[in-house]
Amino acid sequence: MSTVVQKKGFFPVLWDYLTTVDHKKIAILYLISGGFFFLVGGLEAMVIRIQLAVPDSNFVSAGLYNEILTMHGTTMIFLAAMPLLFAFMNAVVPLQIGARDVAFPFLNSLGFWLFFFGGIFLNLSWFLGGAPDAGWTSYASLSLASEGHGIDFYVLGLQISGAGTLIAGINFLVTIINMRAPGMTYMRMPLFTWSTFVASALILFAFPPLTVGLFLMLFDRMFGANFFDHTMGGNTIIWEHLFWIFGHPEVYILILPAFGIFSEIFATFSRKRLFGYSAMVFATVLIGFLGFMVWVHHMFTVGLGPTANAIFAVATMAIAVPTGVKIFNWMLTMWGGSIKFTTPMLYAVAFIPSFVAGGVTGVMLAVAAADYQYHDTYFVVAHFHYVIIGGVVLGLLAGTHFYWPKMFGTMLNETLGKVTFWLFLIGFHLTFFIQHFLGLMGMPRRIWKYLPNQGLEVGNAISTVGAFFMAAGVLVLIYNIIITQVRNERVGNDPWGDGRTLEWAIASPPPFYNFKQLPLVRGLDPYWIEKMEGNDRMTPAEPIGDIHMPNNSFIPFVMSLGLFIAAFGAMYQVDWRASDGAEYGWAIPVLVIGMLITIGSMAVRSLKDDHGYHVHKEDLEKDDEEGGRL
Amino acid sequence: MATTTGSTSANPKVNYKYRRNKARQEMRAHVTSFAMMIFLTLIAFIMVMSGFDKYYVFPVLLLLAGIQVVLQLYYFMHMSHKGHGAVALFLYSGALVALIVIITFMTIVWW
Ligand code: HEM
Ligand SMILES: [Cu+2]
């Protein structure tokens, strides 16, 4: 047991998490920080809804409203939804393909810390002179005119966390291509792994345009360039293109993994093989591909002309076809199955009509001529909340209940889970269904207040009531999590009893090396196959041998911290130059020091050999005799 | 084991003679493509220096550059070897996405 030390106490545990390169612990880090940002974004949403509950309200001022609205969207997309998806990808994908970890454990940790520090940086704007206020899309003509440092926080924060996302995406691509267990062919990969694969490919191609856009914006705002300033020969539309060339694939980066989670849940609780597996795979890939050809549908009203609008309208509508294929396959998976309505299954069933509603309004918006009417009204707000909450967030909540036992070894309370579900679902439809009509009645999007007697009162009041239902649902979930962890009743490897894929074949949570022996995969749903043949475990594909493990490392944390520090320097050097060197003399030194920390830690990482260590065969065997407590 | 004495491979199953042969073939491919690349570069220079019309020079230059990229990828960056399927897939889909964006901009967005 020399290699494995059971750590106790708060600080050793903290240190363990700060330095971990284990995908299961990184998953927990993503879950906690993504969950935290979800609560922050949720709080901002509540402020928005309270402000809009009654006409002519003065709950928050106009400027503060813009900041809250911007931070709500930015936080929810970049700091809540994406990291929460990464939490499940990290927790589940290596197990599903029968791997001992991701391909690059060090990079996995680096990706997390970059996201984390980027997110913290962005949110520090609240305390340092005001948050960004140009919407999550931060259109250049608006954001270049924004005073203070809000937009700078947006640009630098997203740049840092975006780098983390890109790293994480590449890591998953390499992992899925190279680390599959013997017998795990591409067409035997579970759908969640497939959708992670496609989403990672989308990250690989979609994040660079965002990086470029943010860089141009950074130079425009902080170093006097004029890429987007038309008075100086720039072009503000370039930002819109860059943003949406990233932005539309981004919404598929969010929804595809959620589709994956639902596919697992449908098959598990219908106790049937997923209907039309190969069609599902094909549809996923096709959606990913088409996702790159539709970005102009966000710019129909910019005036690109009828040709551009017509082509992009048709391309956009085409996406509805593979999406429809998936919807029908899920329904046919349930058809004739012996369905168990567990909490995750409830989410999955509710997801179908909710998401279809969002898809239908999507196709309506895709009719370019009609979009002139819908654009920038609450109709669009209703559309994307139906796809994002009805799709992504329901998927995340379903995943939380479904994978909780695998991640923590305890089972969330099912009754409380169902209470959360009903509160959240009712609240969601109450909040957003009515917004379709508010939009059609002409209520503009991103508006701070509206006047009485324009027919908007009732709808907005209902909408706010719904938001409180959702908040109540989230509170019940938090209570559920706390009591579950306090009671700490441990569960076995397959707590739902119907697990089909490899992650359910090993302990909950799995030992740090995952599989003592890599499993032999004999088909789709490998664990189900073994169970049907009366085996209680997977057939091993290799004899017990030494397992090579990576060492923990503090370097990713330091590397990300360096960029975090440098970002402050980059931002305040603007004031230093504006004051002709009279104030903020520390800005440039801080920029340099931050960069030196990052570059220095990269050098340490490159020059110092770290070969990891081995878990020895004898320890593994002894561990078996002692009942697997290693 | 004895049959593989002299092999530099970490894998004793790979026959020495076979590897030598393979290496020689690869060397030939390297040299050939290197010569071709120099030749193509020469053409490019001559074309520019002799002052042809620029509507003729631009597309031909782009074409020559494209050929060089392919040679580089296949003969020097080992894409001709086995097991590079995933790499090729990602390279080509990335190129395709970029191409679509460029074509869109050139035809319907900023025609
Ligand atoms: C059938 C599939 C879909 C179609 C046809 C579609 C179509 C559209 C169109 C045309 C717009 C622009 C509306 C406007 O601004 O006037 C839009 C906005 C939006 N969609 Fe979708 N969409 C689809 C699926 C999705 C999915 C799956 C998501 C996310 C998970 C999503 C998220 C969004 C967001 C966030 C916006 C608003 C962006 C903004 O301006 O802030 N959509 N959609
Ligand atoms: Cu879109």
Automatic annotation (TrEMBL), chain B:
Name under which the protein is recorded: Cytochrome B6
GO molecular function annotations of the record: cytochrome bo3 ubiquinol oxidase activity; proton transmembrane transporter activity
Origin: domain of life: Bacteria
Transmembrane segments: 29-49, 55-77, 89-110
GO terms under biological process: aerobic electron transport chain; electron transport coupled proton transport
GO CC annotation, single: plasma membrane
Record organism: Jeotgalibacillus soli
Family affiliation: Belongs to the cytochrome c oxidase bacterial subunit 4 family.
Source species taxonomy: Bacteria, Bacillati, Bacillota, Bacilli, Bacillales
UniProt keyword list: Cell membrane, Membrane, Oxidoreductase, Transmembrane, Transmembrane helix
InterPro entries documented for this protein: Cyt_c_oxidase_su4_bacillaceae (IPR014257), Cyt_c_oxidase_su4_prok (IPR005171), Cytochrome_c_oxidase_bac_sub4 (IPR050968)
EC assignment: 1.9.3.1
Chief location category: membrane
Pfam families, per database record: COX4_pro
Cellular compartment(s): Cell membrane
